[in-house]
Each structure stands twice: as C-alpha cells, then as structure tokens.
Input
Amino acid sequence: MCYAIPGKVVAVNGNIAVIDYFGEKRNVLRDCEDIMIGEYVYAQGGIIIQKLPESEAEEILSTWKEQFFKLKQRDKKLSQKSIQSAPKSILSIMQKINLKKSLSRGDVYTLLRVKDKNELNLLYTFANNLRQKEHKNACCVHGIIEFSNYCKNNCFYCGIRRDKKLQRYRMRPQEIVDTARNAVQKLGFKALVLQSGEDSWYNEEKLLTIVREIRKLGVLIFLSIGIRKKETYQKLYEAGARAVLLRFETSNKRLFEKIRPDTSFEERINLLRDLKEIGYLITTGFLMGLPEETEDDLVNNLLLTQSLQPDMYSFGPLIPAPGTPFENEKLTKKEELLKFIAIARLLDRKSKIVVTTALETYGMDARREGLLAGANSLMINLTPPQYKELYDIYPQRPVNEASAAIKETIKLLHSLGRAPTDLGV
Ligand code: 5AD
Ligand code: SF4
Output
C-alpha cells in the first residue's frame, strides 16, 4: 500500500527543487534536506519529506508506471465538461474563470444562490474540470490520529466539549509515536494529522518529544491541537512539524464568541497569520449550518478562508451532536456542501480542498461526489480502535478499521483515476 509516488529531482534552484513524476513536474520546497539532482524523494504538501534509494524508488515506480497513465486518462475523461445551457450570470462567471480573472464578492453570492439541480451539476463539473487542469490527477491522502478527547473548551457544537459526560482518554506520547510508526511503516502514510481537544496535559515538552520522534519517520506532520502560544508553535516547527489544521469555524465574530465561550475570534485569526509567518502550511475553514448563520456569513466564510491564503481548505457541515446545545439543529443539505466545494475551487484554483470525514455522514458516495466537485484531498482515520468511538465530536463517525478504510479509499481513487503524486507548491 502506498500513499505517495516517489519523484525524481530534476532541478534545484535555491530552496526549491523540481521533481518529476512520469514527465509531470512539480515545484517543492527542499526544507532542510540536502538534495541533489538525480535523487529520488517523497514529497507531501509541497515539501520534500524523505529521500529514498534509487533501487527502491525504481522498483516502486515500475509498479506505478503503466497504471499512472491509465489513471490520468480516466481522470481526464471524468472531468470533461460540456456546457449546454446555463443562465447568463453563471456563464459570465465561468468566462471570468477561463480568463483566469478573480471572482468578485458579487460572483460568490450569485454562485451561492444556485439551487437548480442542472445548474448545480454544471457547477460541480466546471469545478472538477478546473481541478483537473490545475492539479492533474494528484490527490493527497492524510492519516489522522486523534490522541486525546480531553478539552478545556465548551464549544456549543462539539461532542467532546468540556461539559459533555463522556469517557475520556489520553494516549501516552510513546503510544502516539507507535501509532504513527505503524501508519508510516506498515500502512504507507506520508502525512499524518495529530489531533486532540485543547488539552494542556500535553505541555510543550511532551509535544516536542512526540513531534521529534515522529519526524524521524520521514512523514509530514500536521498539528491540530488548537490554540497554543506562538513560541510553542515556533519550537514545534523547529522540531519538525510543518503543517497546522486550525479552522476559524465562522467568520462572524459575534457568533464565534457566542458558540465558543471564553475563546477569542481575533486570537484565532492572529494565530493563523502567525503560523503562516513561521512557515507552516495552513489548513483552515469553517463549519456550515450554524444557527443564526446568514448568507453574508457564508460568503464571508469563503472569503476569509481565501484571504488567509491557506494551502488547504477544510470545511464541513455541523452535525448535531447529542448532549450539546446544538443537538436539535438541522444538518446542511449535501448539495449545499458540494456547492461550497465547487465555489471554493472556482475562487481559488490553486488550493487543495479536503473532503472531510464529516461528509461521510451523507453516505459513502459523498466522498466521491466531493472529489468530483473540485476536491483533491482525503483523510483516513487511524486512531486506535479502543479510542476511536470515544473521540465523539459528532455522531455516526465512520469507525471501520484503518485497513478497511484504506482499501475502500484506494478503490475510490482508482475508480476516479486519481494518483497519490504530490501537488507541489
Ligand atoms: N459537527 C461537525 N464538525 C464538528 N467539529 C466539532 N464538532 C463538530 C460537529 N458537531 C469540527 C470543528 C473542529 C474540528 C476538529 O471538528 O470544526 O474544528
Ligand atoms: Fe474543544 Fe475543539 Fe471541541 Fe471546541 S471544537 S470543544 S476546542 S475539541
């Protein structure tokens, strides 16, 4: 099982290396590695994470070679667009995109108001076509390890909020490292998200140890641990973490502060900016379907994400979680979520857009539909089985075994013609 194809370094310019995947070139950051032309590397999130011996790389590449071109053909076929009819307003937006012009705020409102089924399908197809043109058939698959369900916060939407009666767990640092080792060495993951509630039991020292140990495995480390001091994130970067997943949840400050008591909107946004400055790859986004959310909020959510210049967009539906103040809220319709994926793609052609696990609440087909509406990244839950059900942020989370989830994901990616090449920077 392999979640990344090795690339060959064909040029090095300063801190950028050009790597080649069967003739497709991608620019990637050299990071701290000493890389020479002709060497083989794994890259993730646009960063070289590991070198590998030529013989090993060539063996892996020989198994991919034939398949790679077949996959590319399949993806190209599935992402063809044929636009028969559409309202003038939508056609003119598509014209703008074809001319590589940026969309205005008004365009986002127009797209958001699309309700007609045929027009929605047109949007999805158009966005998928743009994804194919920009990123070819590259699709990244990240593993996620949820290492603690303790949280000091009390967010109204979240099933592991402080006040929720729940069996709590904390994985020991060594247990986290062992789970990561298994994910990298046995399951073939090249990018791992380490996620928890805001749990200060994991102090700076513990986090640094975990990151240093996992970095040695040659994997891209994403942190999803909430608010910490900028200095702590700086040290974690130096220890080897390279990406952060931190949603701002909603662009509406008043709503934010209501549904996330004792937390600050400015602090979160400022931290996102600081993290970018440190050099982290940023994944951010919002929840859809919060009570009191207006159309303006929805547009602002997308535009705020864009303005933070993330490497990856991550947004998903609010799934009403029992035992939380939002347990009786309505779930956003699947079509609305797919529409948001498509609009995000049209707004930001270069971005990576993740199909979040929350989308699976709509059924197994939803991941496929997300990938066909402009998304190009997936996550697989690798939390050890004894903890998975306890990380109960929302109900009906898929709890199947990692190996079964991997099999299903590979099948899905094959059927769509997607390959695990890196998307570059
Ligand atoms: N439904 C959907 N997503 C949720 N999250 C927390 N609770 C829920 C819920 N009920 C998301 C938040 C957070 C991420 C880790 O999980 O957006 O950023
Ligand atoms: Fe804690 Fe995050 Fe849940 Fe809020 S959303 S209660 S910060 S785990």
The first strand starts at residue 7 and ends at 13. DSSP finds 14 helices and 15 strands in the chain. Residues 234 and 278 are 6 Å apart (CA to CA). The first helix runs from residue 54 to 78.
